[in-house]
Amino acid sequence: MINHARNWLLNQLQSDFSTPGEEIIDPLFRPIAWPMPLAVFRQYMFGTTPDRFTLNYYCAQLMNVLHSVRATDAYIRSLDNRLTYLTSQTLFGADGRVTVSPYGTYTGVVLSSTGSWSANRGSSTNSFDALLSVQIGSTSATVTASDATGSVSFAVHVSTDGAGNFSSDRFGIAAGAPSLVISGNSANPASTYEWRVTSYIAPSASLLDNFKAIPPSALTAIVGQASTEPQMSFYNLFTSGSSVQDRIAAVGASAVLQLNSTFTSLYTLQGAA
Questions:
Q1: So where are the chain's domains?
Q2: 126-136 and 139-147: which strand pairing?
Q3: pLDDT digits (tens, 9 = 90+) for 103-135
């Protein structure tokens, strides 16, 4: 299946691509309950109850590591070489990201959306700015929404009156007064346009931090000593690798191998090729 190894590691249904970091997931793929000790690996690497953004964030980092080591890269590609993601991703290089997407019942065209996010580490106050360019009739309007409430999601409500003047408010106001700036005009009759603005805050812990917290007994049980390939190569990489990156790749590839060996029959029974 396309993005074969990533599907097993992410272990989620296909989404609507509204969250940063989404990739194609086979529509026939169904999440499964990871057996022990793989469940321990997943809990430490991705978190106990991670949201979709956190899953995408850590999965992107893990796939980077798997593709950076020759043995594990070859194994991942042998499952299915159809990859829709970059094997050296920079999607989550910044601290956070802001997205703008259609919300509720609306008409109109979103021309573009950009956003920036900043935070004072150690402080409970984060802030972001989202810029939304919309086209109403033959002219355009620009809406800039700012917030200082942390990780939030709210709706910007832009409308034009009969004279073509823009006005705006927002829903879901939390602590910290928002700032909205509207510019532009239109000769269109009264219309209403709504968009969802969401800020995403990158997890504070790195993939390396998460890996170092995994109990050694769980790592040893996942990798195991084997006499057949490719598990033997993963074991040697784990025990003799020159870096922590090698160890992460060995455990990650071992997890994919076990999941693929154990659950591929379930995927096939659902009608996948």
A1: 4-92+205-269, 96-201
A2: antiparallel
A3: 554 445 555 555 555 544 344 445 666 666 665
